[in-house]
Amino acid sequence: MDRHGNFLVGGSVAFLGIVTAVRYQGLPIIARQNGREDPVQMQLPGQKKLAPLFSLNFMGVGIVEPAAKVRQLLLQARQVLLR
After folding, report:
1. How far, in Å, CA of 56 to CA of 58, rounded?
2. Using CA atoms, how far apart are residues 41 and 53, in angstroms rounded to an integer?
3. Residue 70 counted as domain residue
4. Would you list the DSSP string of 8-52?
5. Confidence of residue 13 (pLDDT cuts 50, 70, 90)
6. Residues 6+ apart with CB under 8 A from 70
7. pTM above threshold 0.70
8. Each residue of 32-65: b (16+ CB within 10 Å) or e?
9. H or E segment at 57?
10. What is the reported pLDDT for 8?
């Protein structure tokens, strides 16, 4: 896929950038039986109440830092980690 969203077949691969943030959504897991829907739950250690289980779904939307900024992004990340 090129930077304009067109699908490409063949040719060389180009580095466009790094995804630095994504959208995601936690959806409850539902069990269906005989027309009835119930949330799937589990007992967590140290908790008295049951906790609902969620499925983490990643959307196709994200923030991409262009390839020209990758070096700067990596240097900034290194500085943050060395603090």
Report:
1. 7
2. 6
3. yes
4. --SS-----EEEEEEEEEEEE-EEEETTEEEE-EEEPTT-SSEEE
5. low
6. 17, 18
7. no
8. eeeeeeeeeeeeeeeeeeeeeeeeeeeeeeeeeb
9. strand 54-66
10. 67
Residue ranges making up the domain that contains 68: 24-81
In the numeric block, which tokens belong to residue 71?
A: 């070096």
For residue 15, being part of any structural domain is answered with no
Q: What is the pLDDT of the chain when averaged over all its residues?
A: 85
Amino acid, res. 78: R
**For residues 5-24, average pLDDT:** 76
Q: What sign has the CA pseudo-torsion 70, 66, 64, 17?
A: negative
Q: Total structural domains in the chain?
A: 1
- Please give the structure tokens belonging to residue 80: 């943050």
Is 60 a residue whose pLDDT tops 80? no
**Domain contains 3:** no
